[in-house]
Amino acid sequence: MSKPWWAPAPVSRLLSDLITAEVSRLRPGLLGVRRAPDACQGRGGQGGAGLHSDLGALGLDSLEFLDLATAVVVQFHLHETGLDDALMADARLDHWVETILRSRARWDEAISFQTSGSTGRPKICTHRMAFLEQEIAFFADRLHDRRRLLCAVPSHHIYGFLFSVMLPATLGIPVIDLRDALPGSVLRQAQPGDLLIGHPTFFDLATRGPVSVAADIVAVSSTAPCPEPVWRRLGESGFAAIIEVYGASETAGIGERTAPDAPFRLLPQWLRDSSSNTRIARLSAVGEAVLTELPDQVQWVDDDRFHVLGRRDGAVQVGGINVFPRRVERCIREHPEVADALVRLASAEQGGRLKAFVVPGAGCADPQHLPERLHAWLAERLAPAERPRTITVGAQLPRTRLGKSTDWDLQ
């Protein structure tokens, strides 16, 4: 029996988001790739995709088009059914949607997602559909009384696929895409019974000015930690409930909480691995346990609840020496003229050294020459391999639309 999310409208929306992201990556300035504001409107995610129906008209060269088609093949596992070559036979969007649906009708064991690369090199994360269905069954039971889903996240990443594709299809409710609307306006226009799927940056923008929402609206946030002030403003705005989902591209959802100071509680399909503080086990419907490393450092309250302490500090190599970007960030933030900083490893083409992005503080009277002062200051505190080769100054740290830190040289 076909799953409700494998239908023309939700797949068209999912494919549209994936293609838009891939074309933006291949050709950052390419015109003509736009989402229609009502691309997700309709019952259970009905509505047309915001792309031209002829994908050949996107302006990609032959190698770029192969790259795009490969991304679709990988995400939907078209190679499992031998339908991968079918994409090249017809470059119309509706043909690609039909091909995905034909493939899913034959094989529906797994789906893959690509990480954003915000914490390292982008990679492919493959998930069993049965595991994702476990997660959505839990949230569908919890949110069974929702009447509409308001979506502020893309659908081709794991969070968006779970909550803006699988969940509304399971509940049989309409999806309305909010990504082209002002966040504050979205809150003011929300209706009783709505479920708002967002991320910390969206909710921060939505509540910067005075705003109140109608009764009986539930908000779900994920992709990054939701700051306590944002939680507070959401509560003051009148939300009936706020749910933060903790997870990662590699794991899907792991835990959830409904208050900023509360620990996360493991979702029902997960168990703590008693032999390790860094692993959890995912139980299949037949009781099979699959061990998984937690993406962050955590502090366990008991076997079901935990606090997230932060991303693990991964070492990178500079000239064969292990260095820790977060240690360098902390050192830069200690400078009296710095408000915030982000440190990353530059690409091999950029020299393979650390690079820094710095936000000047209130005490910085001359931001233009701040990098020169920082270089001299860091030379007294860090080993040569730890010192950033380049320092970029800006008004705020570079982040994606979902609020995750990103590489400023790739924006």
CATH fold field value of the largest domain: Rossmann fold
Could you say which structural class the secondary elements and strand pairing correspond to? alpha/beta
SSE topology string: HHHHEEHEHEHEHEHEEEEEEEEEEHEEHE
* CA-atom Rg in angstroms: 22 Å
Terminal residue distance: 43 Å
By DSSP (H or I, 4+ residues per run), the number of helices equals 11
Annotated CATH homologous superfamily of the largest domain: ANL, N-terminal domain
Q: Give the domain tally.
A: 3
In CATH, what is the class of the largest domain? Alpha Beta
Identify low-pLDDT runs. 31-50, 117-121
Q: Proportion of β residues?
A: 15-25%
Q: Average pLDDT value?
A: 87
Biggest sheet architecture: 9 strands, mixed
Give the total of beta strands.
Answer: 19
Assigned CATH architecture of the largest domain? 3-Layer(aba) Sandwich
Shape: globular
Q: Give the neighbour order of strands across the main sheet.
A: 4-3-5-6-7-8-9-14-13
Helix content: 25-40%
What does this structure look like?
The protein is α/β, with parallel strands linked by helices. Helices cover 30% and strands 23% of the residues. The chain contains eleven helices and 19 strands. The longest helix has 19 residues, at 8-26.
Kindly summarize this structure in a few lines.
This protein is α/β, with parallel strands linked by helices and 411 residues long. Helix content is 30%, strand content 23%.
